[in-house]
Write a structure and sequence with these properties.
One of its GO terms (cellular component) is plasma membrane. The chain is an alpha/beta fold and about 150 residues long. It has 2 domains: about 5-60, 3-Layer(aba) Sandwich (Rossmann fold); about 75-140, 3-Layer(aba) Sandwich (Rossmann fold), CATH 3.40.50.1000. The protein is built from 7 helices and 7 strands; from the N terminus they run H-E-E-E-H-E-H-E-H-E-H-H-E-H. The strands form 3 sheets. Strands 5-6-7 form a 3-stranded parallel sheet, covered by helices on one side. Strands 1-4 form a two-stranded parallel ribbon. Strands 2-3 form a two-stranded antiparallel ribbon. Helix 1 packs across helix 2 (about 40-55).
Amino acid sequence: FSYAKLCQALRYLLRDGPDCLLVGTNRDHRLPLEGGTAIPGTGCLVKAVETAAQREAFIVGKPNRYMFDCVAGEFDIDPARTIMVGDRLDTDILMGNSCGLTTLLTLTGVTALDEVQGHRESDCPARQSLVPDYYVDSIADLLPALGD
């Protein structure tokens, strides 16, 4: 990604107008790294193009259910027998809940348990949609259950 590529994206979007789709994979602001550091996520790049183009991207990844619907249609997935495991409330857990899946939050990503508790205690439906069904400290905590 560079300023020149941002300019090129804007040229395409202006030239072709609404016929030129603006599609993003996700809106993740940052991605956590070990030791408490982070790097900018794809959402930063999507936002740059959206700002320049003055239009919103269609997001195909989490939390949009588009990707889940594609996979569920292809593989005949039963949401009642499916669990969404993820480390972000605003993408992984929100998508799982909106698709009728059981949700499991791993606390190894960007979400802390006190944030979950705040959403759980809220009367706001939007905040309630971010509450997972279950949580584990680490994805490694699931390994014993996978042996069954």
